[in-house]
User: Fold TIGR03084 family protein from Streptomyces angustmyceticus.
Amino acid sequence: MDDPSVLAALVAEGDDLDVLVTAVHDWSIPTPAPAPGRTVAHQIAHLAWSDANALSALRTPNAFRAELGRAETEGSGYADKAAAAGAAKPRSVLLDEWRAGRAELAATLLDAPWDHAFPWYMSKVTPALMAPLRLMETWAHGQDVFDAVGVAHGPTDRLQHVASLGVLGRALSFAAVGLPEPAAPFRVELTASDGQTWVWGPEAAAQRVQGSAMDFCLCVTRRRPWPETGLTASGEDAQKWLEVARVFL
Assistant:
């Protein structure tokens, strides 16, 4: 692995969420949008299922392609059905499955060639991309749980990996609403939890997004709409981006 920091960040993010959900004894508490009808149990079940799918894709790509076929056939209800099935398990069983699965995935990613391509939903990915993708999803679904139980989810420097995916996902954001990606360059300037500024794009770019890293990550994971954050956008294309921003379909 060329960049062990992202894998360490993935493990730490899962551990932080583990501490929270272990202290929450009622996993039937509803979690907020963007997935109405889900509970704390659904969020953990979704993470456990996603980790298991990532392991399958890495270890047995041919078998995983059958899973991709089921996803295409079932459409939007595919992930919801899996989350509901996991949420129906006893809390202790689901917690143990999630812990074992995420530990096994981290160990497998550590040993995998960093540039090895394997199948994933709608594309191929590598461990170099899968690690931050799993970090992003753990953080985002963890945010749902933090919101549900009323506990502050403090920002960490791990958000840099999530923010990077958000910046890389600009083309996806526009494509998801049927728009071409603007040709003009963008500048993104985000303030980290320690006061540092994380920067992407040329300094002279007219299309600019500025604000806290936490707000940007909440926006691109669709946990908060842009108007409910402190982000500012200069330029028509930058404003449209924040309106439609996402890191997944």
Remarks:
- The chain has a mean pLDDT of 94.
